[in-house]
Design a protein that fits this description.
By secondary structure, the protein is an alpha/beta fold. It has five helices and five strands; from the N terminus they run E-H-E-H-E-H-E-H-E-H. It starts with a strand and ends with a helix.
Length: about 180
Amino acid sequence: MNLPRDIVVLIGSLRKESFTRKLAKAVLGLMPETMKGTIVEIGDLPFYNQDDEPNPPAQWVAFRDRIRKCDGVLFFTPEYNRSVPGVLKNAIEVGSRPPGKSAWDGKPAAIVSASPGTMGGFGANHHLRQSLVALNVPTLAAPEAYIGGVAKLFDESGKLINDDTRALLQKFVTAYAALVERH
């Protein structure tokens, strides 16, 4: 039997009970047996500074190694000021350096963006896509996952209670699994 595909899950919110984290956990529960998702925390990554490249912090080295070893990456991002949170952008920079040695190169990815508003993190989703194009990361085009009204989708225990959102996320996960298999 083949081992399940190793999928790194990155969450662009540091808050323990963030809606973005709840969405990530819901998607982990929808993954097929052919995939195993693992949340990789990014809050302890020191800010990227090129001056540190000759002696990179241990957290950078470990993060880059983890990305290089995985079969794909799922990004979950809230929208901050119509873009991605700084912590997520920092993780992208850390993984993309030094030039010519990007850990992201060729890793199939997909993005779920979320917002309490109606646009579902559209701006953050597309800003993230721009960075991933520059890093040669094949990114799932459809179905797109912009989750609006996210504050109303979970019960008190953090369980996803909206059937329409669950159906969209299941379709999203199925399409992403196919992308990973193609790559």
